Amino acid sequence: MGLTKTFKDGSSPTPELGGTWWSNTCPNVACDVKSIDYAFSFEPNYDWSSSYAGGAEIWDYLRRVARKHHLYDKIRFRTEITHIEWDDGRQKWVLDYINLSTGDQGRYEADIVFAGMGPLRIPKIPKEFEAFEGPKCHTAHAIQVVPGIVNTVKHLDYYQRTASYVVPRRNVPTNALWKFLFRYMPFFHFIVYKLQYWASEYTIAAFSTKLIDRIPRLVMTAMAWLFRRIQIRNTQLRKKLTPKYEMGCRRIVVSSDYYPALARKNVDVHTEEITGVKGNSILLKDGTSQEVDVLVLATGFHVQNILPSRFMIGKDGADVKTSWGTNPQTYYGLTSPETPNMFFLLGPNIGLGHNSVLFMVETQVEYALKAISHMMKHDLTTLEVTSQACRDFADEVDEKMKGMVWSTMCNSWYQNKQGRVTALWWSSCSHY
Ligand SMILES: Cc1cc2nc3c(=O)[nH]c(=O)nc-3n(C[C@H](O)[C@H](O)[C@H](O)COP(=O)(O)OP(=O)(O)OC[C@H]3O[C@@H](n4cnc5c(N)ncnc54)[C@H](O)[C@@H]3O)c2cc1C
Q: Best substitution site from 121, 354, 429 to test ligand 1's pocket, by max atoms within 8 Å of Cβ?
């Protein structure tokens, strides 16, 4: 079936780039923003095979970029940072590491640290599934697996906790003419890239609760309703797949082959709650059980409070996990008072629901480089953000979030336990 047997944690077992696009290998894994925008601005990709590239193709692109910029020589592959601590006296970060291939351990020091540990890296495996004895694998959402396996499996039992809003995805292969034009007329590529960027930017309005902005959301909700009616003819099934919350407050699924896959004869959609597992069977709330060959857990990732305990010790001996708790207060998701000379990439409140996060990463790196230039120019050993600046940023985010659909209408992985949205940026990329 092409499913991975284990849960990969983002680090490749060979000297290769790891990360999201290496570790997520489900048959349908793909970008849900247009590929033209899922590329670095300084490294346009003229060769995307289609408008929404698959995971393997994105991984290839990233490897090409890494090779071109000679990053392979600089990366310490198979090396996990096991502990990182700020040395107040010497104004340096001390990093302990282990080589996962040889088991060798070591330590090195750094003046500046970029912590790009990945916002969606730690699979969320609910406790009740841990004891399953058969093969199991994990993915972020069923969309990444169902359409890719439905033609191969004899039978698929699909257990759904919360229905998603689904909107169409026109995944058009990029033909030779477009590739030619992109490659030999980079300005043309730039225009298409910018048009797509602004088209995605505009959709942020659909997540606002302002009366005027409800119009784009209403249009999108109507589109999702119509799409469901067209693609799912069976009334019972359609009822099961109809979301009961306001559109946008949970992640919107962009797919044209998801509903048709669920409507196939070899698929049963269930809404009963799974309470646990025993051997190769899943146990249901009504007391029955069902034996399965393979368990695919489309249960997403841990997003909140993901630093291990005592992993990152910052200024004045602060354990960053404890200081942040479930409510991290950072300056633009990038720096925090406990962590001088450290820049988090895609830290708290930086995720997006409407555009490519690569724009956010680039913006963060640009900011960090300016900060480092400032340090060099003024011969500073340390740069740290004030607690007040972080509090002001958190207050601003909380205030703005009141006007966004993510904080008001339903529970989702965007929120911490108290309902505060800590995973998303509240506005457009350009605003960031
Ligand atoms: C299935 C899926 C689909 C997605 N689709 C989109 C999309 O369409 N558009 C979009 O904008 N975003 C999407 N995302 C979000 C995606 O995570 C980001 O786009 C991007 O890949 C994040 O890159 P990153 O380098 O920050 O993190 P990652 O790719 O997760 O890389 C983090 C790296 O840090 C390493 N690391 C972590 N801790 C340590 C340590 N202690 N020591 C050493 N190394 C460590 C990890 O091993 C990993 O290699 C998707 C995510 C998933 C999971």
A: 121
